[in-house]
Specification:
mainly beta, six-stranded antiparallel β-sheet, Tachylectin-2, Chain A, binds beta-D-fructofuranose, 2% helix, Jelly Rolls, globular
């Protein structure tokens, strides 16, 4: 890859417009284009960055490389794409916000965050560089932690000098992804880093002016050795609790846990008493139980909601959309809550504004199968499922007329297990990491299920967001049906299906 950097240009505006348009038209021809999820118009979409509310609008940036799949010889590096919104569901594209055009970020304006302070949006992010010792072909990564601010005209002004050059003693060059917050007139940032002994951890920085920063040391968790690198850490306080969401890389899969190439995990505990960095927390959990979710970022909405958005994709994973010169999309935004010490993730209420026609669904199934002929895979399902006996319900979504190809959701009351099966769902993705995901989950008589399907994705919320399964699906054109199978007993289904705008 590094050799390709020699052909790189810093700004998309330096690429001939016809080459850019060509990429976009290839992407537009994809059968997998989503209808209500954020996607890149060409190239890669990765981590959400700078998710914030500023100047009367929601702002979302993301890791973006619009010419990543171009055959033309101008390879643009990761920069930040900028979107704005009034309601978190209808987004306006403002193009590139930060491109990789300084000596501190030549090989990528990597992930970071933003917080509004008075009339500025303060941004903190990582610049990635490689020192060119081309003669012995030994490329050395050198990261820089950088700041900038965006004014009310959405112009980004970058600081002249880095906050941190390179890395600290005891850490490798995997040192990135600052997430910033403000508390009691102090600024804090948490960074994902790798220790010299190749274990991952997170560092906390403090500043009282956003210019001079000093380290408070590592966030002290119970996990001394948890993977080899922590990417995209996000620490915040919610309902009197402290919460860390992060991506520890290198966890070994065990049982049904940690099946994806990389995971997004969380630790829920007491609030950290900064400048002390001790974090008293419960055990590690996965944020999502599906196939495709990474690099989540949260923000505080003006009404106090803690809202999370994630990349619906994984690093180092080839997706069928790449044939159409783009990859990645965002999840829908979700609201986070803690109830009885448990995390709940709920689709934001603004999603309801995307509803069109409503079809009600009332089915009583006795050991049988029902075909709900749905026209288009862009639906919200809001269902209550009632089990009469110890039975199982299988929901086949994205199914063909014979139900041979489908994405299957199995609610097994007998085994107290929820499983999703992507094996027959269309073009395969990352099958080396398995084709099913499952969790042990106590299924009582009554279950509430909310599902969002778009052209090539599914997001499943169990019991008001107590568990979430997020996955990409790449179906064939004829996979427009949905079947319900009740096995060994009676199942009642009651609810609504909304078509989505
Ligand atoms: C996570 C990540 C971050 C990095 C960014 C680069 O997906 O690897 O650690 O900042 O992507 O695009």
């Amino acid at each position: 890859r590094i050799k390709e950097f020699r052909n790189m240009v810093a700004h998309l505006s330096d690429v001939p417009i016809s080459d850019v348009e060509k990429e976009q038209s290839i992407a537009q021809a994809s059968p997998y284009r989503q209808t209500y999820h954020i996607e890149s118009e060409s190239g890669t979409l990765g981590d959400p960055n700078g998710f914030s509310y500023f100047n009367g609008k929601y702002h979302l940036f993301y890791q973006w490389s619009p010419m990543a799949f171009s055959k033309a010889p101008h390879y643009t590096q990761h920069g930040w794409k900028h979107l704005i919104s009034d309601d978190l569901v209808n987004w306006q594209d403002l193009g590139a916000a930060i491109e990789s055009d300084t000596k501190y970020d030549k090989y990528g304006t990597y992930s970071g965050s933003a917080i509004p302070v008075h009339d500025k949006l303060l941004m903190f992010y990582t610049g990635n560089t490689w020192i060119n010792t081309e003669t012995d072909n030994n490329w050395l990564r050198v990261p820089y932690q950088l700041t900038a601010f965006m004014d009310k005209n959405n112009q980004v002004h970058r600081s002249n000098s880095p906050i941190i050059e390179g890395t600290f003693d005891g850490y490798t060059a995997h040192f990135r992804d600052p997430k910033v917050w403000q508390k009691d007139s102090q600024y804090y940032a948490i960074l994902g880093v790798q220790r010299k002994n190749l274990t991952g951890t997170a560092l906390i920085l403090q500043s009282d002016d956003f210019e001079k920063w000093h380290s408070l040391g590592e966030l002290k968790t119970n996990y001394e050795e948890l993977g080899y690198m922590w990417e995209c850490p996000d620490y915040f306080e919610i309902d009197d609790k402290g919460m860390l969401i992060f991506c520890p890389q290198g966890l070994k899969s065990s049982g049904s846990q940690y099946q994806n190439i990389y995971q997004t995990c969380y630790l829920l505990g007491d609030q950290v008493s900064l400048p002390q960095t001790d974090f008293k927390h419960e055990s590690l959990n996965e944020l999502d139980n599906g196939f495709d979710l990474y690099a989540s970022q949260t923000m505080l909405a003006p009404d106090g909601r803690r809202i999370i958005i994630s990349w619906m994709g994984l690093p180092e994973t080839a997706y069928p959309t790449e044939k159409y010169h783009y990859s990645g999309c965002m999840t829908i935004p979700k609201e986070l809550h803690i109830k009885n010490g448990e995390l709940y993730q709920i689709p934001i209420k603004e999603m309801n504004s995307l509803r069109k026609n409503c079809h009600s669904l009332n089915e009583r199934l006795e050991n049988e199968t029902v075909d709900l002929k749905l026209k288009k895979m862009s639906n919200e399902f809001d269902l209550t499922v009632k089990f009469n006996d110890s039975n199982a319900l299988m929901l086949d979504l994205f199914a063909d007329a014979l139900d041979q190809r489908r994405f299957r959701v199995i609610l097994n009351k007998k085994k107290n297990e929820i499983m999703i099966d992507r094996s027959q769902s269309g073009v395969e993705v990352a099958t080396e990491y398995g084709v099913t995901r499952k969790i042990d989950y106590k299924l009582s008589e009554k279950l509430n299920l909310k599902i969002y399907t778009d052209c090539s994705s599914i997001e499943i919320f169990i019991n008001n967001g107590e568990k979430v399964f997020t996955s990409r699906i790449f179906p064939n054109e004829d996979q427009i049906h949905m079947f319900l199978h009740s096995i060994c007993g009676t199942t009642n289904i009651d609810g609504s299906i909304y078509e989505m705008k």
